[in-house]
Design goal:
Chain lengths: 309, 280
């Protein structure tokens, strides 16, 4: 017994220095772990603070005028105390939908091209091109739209050029990388055997793509489109520069339009009181939109996991 | 059988055309801005302060503002993001509630529109904490926006470190933190650096959040509590207020060049990452 204890003491001394040293080292390890945990907690804290502060600023106004009239009333005249974001709400949806309308088919085609059709070298170059497209800031896209696309529409299609169409075009370009990258990854992730079996059964290359690969990558492709939608709804600078920003419901795609994001950035500089609260309330709508989209993606992921089991 | 061949050929052409369209879009945007902007940019444009609201002079102030905000926001976001990644991958239990929550909020942060960050930064940092429109308010707001990118890339890089490295280090008697700081972080460094470089690009280009938190003052920012104007904000104001198209092109040109350089370096470190993986 005695020997055992002495031996224990001795070996601990031998391997780890004296007791005080060991305690100190353990303490340092513990402190570092807590510090790392704290930095991980920052993300949670950030989301909590963002929700708290934006809701505190905007929610009282929404509850005062009612969520329905806030979202759907077309009367936005802050000077008269009318805060209906109906036109902007519809404006955001219209511009986003029009952008998706052309960007989704093009992105999926390019994603399939990169994953299945392009020679390896070309696929790599395309990946670099898409990365660069993703890296260009929105204000540069907006500037390009303002200088090239808006005059082009004005001169060739009529109207003043600042329009739903200009917004949809620029926004569509901006969401290409999001949709291309995620759907390409999900196509690449389809097990090789699927493709080989299909080809072995005598299906042509394109039959294999359309009936085997794309269906197998479906959930990834849907995630890609949802993320693209989120990006489009939330985009601000490019849209505000090319859509003309009239707070009306556009009759056709050559009409100007104002989105919810544009409304915030245009008026935040001088808004006070209820007007400012209404802009924060618009921020709540955007925030809730994104959280719901994220939720859908997470549900999709969970469904996919269950399918795999 | 013949008609089938025909269809397949046509589809192939279509796929190539779609890819070509994307390439064309990128090159026409970059090409046009470079073509119009390169004539404007010279040393004076970079070194001189703007005068008459940006109609004359250069954009030195906006360059300083951009560098300042980018540097401070990265100095805040990098340790937090890398720390988060280390905690999630090395310390947290796989299925712990906390780790799940961190991942979930991090994903949500990545999707929140920049204008919402701007609103938050305005009401929290500028007003509530009394920092005013300043480099610090802007940088803190930016830091939160950059956090998910840095965390995710660092997570992936740490995950790619072979398991034997950890086991060997621990078997040699190294402590957890010794293993993390001397084995895992160095092995994951290229991936971590890629995340940081990508974040630089995001910080340089961000406009909506910055305009609401750092302001758009045309003064030279001297300290953390001074307002600042970044190049992106400058471009926005020059273009939309019709101040100077010429100078807007010059600014856009510098931003685009910066983005290309940043992308080049990000790819370089990505390449090194995959290269070292292949050599393993």
């Amino acid at each position: 017994m005695l020997i055992d204890e002495a031996g224990g003491e001795m070996s601990r001394d031998y391997f780890a220095g004296n007791d005080a040293d060991l305690v100190r080292r353990k303490l340092i390890e513990k402190i570092i772990e807590k510090l790392l945990m704290f930095s991980a907690g920052i993300s949670i804290l950030a989301i909590v603070l963002i929700s708290l502060f934006i809701f505190a600023q905007g929610l009282p106004l929404i509850s005062e005028i009612g969520i329905r009239s806030f979202l759907f009333s077309l009367d936005w005249s802050p000077s008269r105390g009318e805060f209906g974001i109906g036109a902007m709400f519809i404006g955001s949806l219209v511009v986003t939908f029009s952008a998706l309308l052309w960007a989704v088919p093009l992105s999926l085609t390019v994603a399939i091209f990169m994953a299945e059709i392009a020679p390896a070298k070309i696929g790599e170059i395309m990946a670099g091109i898409v990365e660069l497209l993703a890296g260009i800031p929105s204000v540069v896209y907006g500037f390009f739209g303002l200088i090239i696309i808006v005059p082009f529409i004005r001169n060739n299609l009529g109207g003043n050029g600042m329009s739903v169409l200009a917004g949809a075009f620029i926004l569509g370009i901006m969401i290409l990388p999001t949709i291309i990258n995620i759907s390409r990854d999900s196509i690449v992730a389809v097990p090789r055997e699927y493709k080989e079996s299909s080809l072995a059964l005598g299906a042509t290359y394109y039959q294999t793509i359309s009936r085997v690969l794309v269906p197998a990558a479906k959930s990834g492709i849907i995630t890609a489109i949802i993320l693209g939608t989120g990006r489009a709804i939330g985009e601000t600078m490019a849209v505000v520069m090319v859509t003309g920003n009239a707070a009306i419901i556009p009759e056709n795609i050559l009409f100007p339009v104002r989105t919810m994001t544009s409304n915030i950035v245009l008026e935040m500089g001088y808004a006070v009181g209820d007007h400012q609260a209404a802009l924060f309330a618009t921020g709540i709508v955007l925030f809730v939109f994104i959280v719901v989209l994220n939720l859908v993606i997470n549900i999709l992921k969970a469904v996919k996991r269950n399918e795999n089991i | 059988m013949k008609t089938f061949d025909w269809k397949e050929k046509l589809l192939t052409v279509l796929f190539w055309l779609a890819a070509l369209a994307v390439v064309g879009i990128l090159f026409s945007i970059i090409g046009y801005i470079v073509w119009k902007g390169i004539a404007v940019v010279n040393l004076d444009f970079i070194l001189e302060a703007p005068s008459r609201a940006g109609r004359e002079g250069g954009i030195s102030i906006a360059i300083v503002g951009t560098v300042y905000l980018t540097a401070v926001s990265l100095a805040i976001a990098t340790p937090l993001g890398v720390g988060t990644a280390i905690y999630l991958e090395e310390y947290a239990r796989r299925r712990s509630k906390f780790a799940y929550l961190v991942n979930l909020t991090s994903e949500t942060l990545a999707g929140v529109p920049s204008i919402v960050f701007g609103l938050f930064g305005f009401v929290f940092f500028v007003i509530f904490l009394g920092m005013g429109w300043s480099v610090l308010s802007g940088s803190l707001t930016l830091a939160i926006m950059l956090l998910p990118t840095i965390t995710r890339t660092a997570q992936e890089a740490i995950l790619a470190v072979p398991h034997e490295y950890r086991e060997n280090s621990l078997a040699l008697g190294a402590s957890k933190w010794q293993t993390v700081s001397r084995i895992i972080i160095p092995s994951a460094l290229p991936g971590i650096v890629t995340g940081i470089i990508l974040s630089i690009g995001r910080a340089v280009g961000e406009t909506a959040a910055v305009i609401l938190t750092a302001g758009s003052s045309l003064g030279m920012p001297g300290g953390l509590f001074d307002p600042a104007r970044t190049m992106s904000v400058h471009l926005y104001i020059l273009a939309t207020e019709g101040i100077s198209l010429e100078r807007a092109f010059g600014t856009a040109f510098l931003i685009v060049i910066l983005v290309i350089v940043i992308n080049y370096f990000a790819n370089l470190s990505l390449y090194r990452l995959s290269h070292s993986r292949n050599n393993r």
